[in-house]
Amino acid sequence: MYSLPPSGVKNMSKTGISEAKTLRKSLVTVCGILCLILILNSPIWAAPFPGENAESIITQAMLQASPSLVRIETVGGADVVDDVLTGTGPTTGVIVSEDGYIITSSFNFASNPATVLVTLPETDNRLPAQIVARDEVRKTTLLKIEATGLIPAVAVPVQEIKVGQWVLALGRTYDARRPNVSLGLVSALGRVEGKAIQTDAKVSPANYGGPLTNLKGEVLGILTPLSPQGTSSMDGMNWYDSGIGFAIPLQDIFAVLDRLKAGETLKPGLMGVSFSATPGFLTDPVIKEVRPTSPAAESGLKAEDRVLTAEGKEVKSVAQLKQVLGQKYAGDTISMTVSRGDSTEEVSMVLAAELQTFEHGLLGILPKRIAEDESGVAIRSVLADSAAEKAGILENDVIASLNGEEIQNVLELSMKLSVKPAGEEVTLGLLREGETKLLKVTLSSAIETIPVEVPLPFAGSEPNQALKLKESGELKNTISETSLDYEIYLPEDYQTDRRYGLILWMSSQGDQLPAGDLAQWKRICRTRGFLLVRPLTEPGVAWTAADTLALESCLDDVEQKYSVDRDTTALFITGNQPEFLIEFATTHRSRIHGNVIQSIPRQFDLPFNEPGQRFRFALLYTVDLTDEIQSKLKEFVKSHGLPVWISQVQSPPTQEEFDDIATWFDLLGTL
Question: Is residue 205 a part of any domain in this protein?
Fold first, then answer.
């Protein structure tokens, strides 16, 4: 590489000047070749501007399209939808059949108006219209008026639409007899997951539902606000008049028009898989999770499968997969090729309109946490209003069988119940005062409130000095394999015949547990029978994915050395960066069954509930949260099938608040 001397070109030698000229010629030649290659291979086709006849050409196109444009007015409905003030002015629709069917943008009906009125071209008569059906994939709505002899729009075949061609965005908003118009170009094709034409013409509520036409007045598509990130009919409105507008190809609408005429609401087709949360164009198409009972699960897809093709098209990113899947409706079939280890699998599935969320069924009992000589599960407590209470189960009953199969211990009963959904009926064999009873119980959903009274786990049991450890209280252990130190608090009355819950206390930023809080944690460990474990890192050093193995080894070490009730293991997270620790808890649901978050992140990802993996969330907040935010948080967690408890606490929590937290931990063992 050449670089100029400090004094500039004047000091260059003749040799240097000659070499510079040669280099410049070479660069010019290379640039010329590159430009030629780009021109020859570029898919962009730029139509010539209409020139001197522009006004005449545009006017003629408007006149050609005008007989198919109608004006739409709505009356009544919500004033605000998705925090957006809904418009009350006229909008636009396009006639798609001579007998009164009209297609328009669903944006125009987001407010669920009570009345819809349509004004036909060249008239002042307003006719009542009925909403026939909605296409929730392409965000369009079909209307019907009582009229015949109408002039339907002419659709341009999708394969004839070119990037760079001139287009008109038309609406019938300001003048019922003359369309409003915006001139622009086709900017891109196959946008918004393969569904839309993109244009730089001004697109706004003034022409939503109207046509995007060529300069002959033929319709390329129907203008509607769209957003790759959203699913609401209001999404994408913030881009109006920005030079980023979208239209759904009219040919695609005609392909499903008969289904819409039949009144069918067309819903997006869902597979039931999730991928990493990085941007789709950067994310490898490796499946992170498969929803139970989903089309993906029934087709045989598994976590860690890599998608190679979809509908015969190569897939190298999640974004490319969405380009195929985003155009599909519920009921459509999609075929895929995936790699699994060293093999390649062909799968096919029928996409679903909704995915069923698994919800664990519960009896509503707390087992005793003291080892018994006899087989079966002794009941410590029956929760109020639970399925068990309604069926007549009592404290101190012993569950001896489930659906005719003998039950040996708590672990066996827990595993068998963990795959049963809420609403399923089971038959329990109970031992009560020497007698055997059979009771039918319909399993219920998780109780999300904290009961007023829950009996302490070891109340009434006699201490046994022979079963105590030599060391208890605050201890420090080191795991040599991973060089991780952790502190553990063993209650002073710890006995090996008791099963203790495990609380893993962690600050996302490596902060230490304040002394005042530690005293409260010790108290609830003594009363509720818990071990408090604190993995140690350098102060101020955040936990990251690189610490996963060390944290797993910490759990291994505690479970091997101490008597742990594995149904009552939870992670308590403090700090402002809890995302990794949330992920650690949710990806280890076979070992961790509860997650308390004391600092609610702005964004966090959750898995969907699965049979065999019980898990609960608790969200504690110290600042005021509106009822709306609390409701949305609860709805988000519950939409994944996970029970959630949301509560405001002081900083630090009061003794009463610590008692509620301790009871919540204890209830993780509910079966």
Answer: yes
For the record, the structure tokens of 220 come out as: 């390329």
pLDDT digits over 503-524, tens only?
A: 999 998 888 898 889 999 999 9
**Domain hosting residue 84, numbered range:** 52-261
For residue 163, CA distances in Å to 39, 182, 188, 217, 249 come to 14, 17, 6, 17, 14
Per-residue pLDDT band at 241 (split at 50, 70, 90) = low
Query: Looking at 350, 380, 400, which one is the last position of a domain?
Result: 350
Q: Which 3-state string (H, E, C) describes 78-144?
A: CCEECCEECCCCCEEEEECCCCCEEEEEHHHHCCCCCEEEEECCCCCCEEECEEEEEECCCCEEEEE
| Chain segment 70-115, per-residue pLDDT in tens | 999 888 765 544 444 455 678 899 999 999 999 999 887 876 788 8
Instruction: Give how many domains the chain has, as a whole number.
Output: 4
Least confident segment among 110-119, 191-200, 263-272: 110-119
Q: What is the mean pLDDT of the chain?
A: 84
Q: How far is CA 665 from CA 523, 525, 628, 642, 650, in A?
A: 14, 10, 26, 15, 19
171 and 277: one domain? no
Specify whether 219 is located in the same domain as 105: yes
Q: Which of 113, 166, 156 has the alpha carbon at shortest distance from 248? A: 156
Same structural domain, 318 and 240: no
Q: Is residue 139 within 8 Å of residue 222, measured between CB atoms?
A: no
The dihedral of CA 457, 459, 460, 466: what is its sign? positive
Cβ atoms 291, 272 nearer than 8 A: yes
Instruction: Round to whole Å and give the CA distance between 652 and 49.
Output: 69
CA atoms within 13 A on the CB side of 14: 0
Q: Judge if 304 and 166 occupy the same domain.
A: no
Question: In this structure, what are the phi and psi dihedrals at residue 353, rounded to the nearest 5 degrees?
Answer: -80, -35
Is residue 38 over pLDDT 60? no
Are the C-beta atoms of residues 67 and 172 closer than 8 Å to each other?
A: no
The pLDDT-based confidence of 15 (bands split at 50, 70, 90) is: very low
Hey, what's the torsion of the CAs at 252, 253, 254, 255, to 10 degrees?
50
- 463 within domain boundaries: no
Amino acid at residue number 484: L
Q: What is the rounded distance in angstroms from the CA atom of residue 530 to the CA atom of residue 124?
A: 77
Residue 506: closest CA among 605, 591, 597: 597
Residue 93 in domain: yes
Taking residues 442-460, report their average pLDDT.
Answer: 87
Residues 6 or more apart in contact with residue 660 via CB below 8 angstroms: 450, 647
The CA distance from 2 to 25, in Å, is 15
**Cα(378)–Cα(365) distance, rounded to whole angstroms?**
10
Containing 36, the helix (H) or strand (E) segment is helix 14-41
pTM: 0.66
The two tokens of residue 429 are: 């064999």
Query: What is the C-alpha to C-alpha distance for residues 417 and 45, in angstroms, rounded to an integer?
Result: 63
β-strand partners of 437: 430
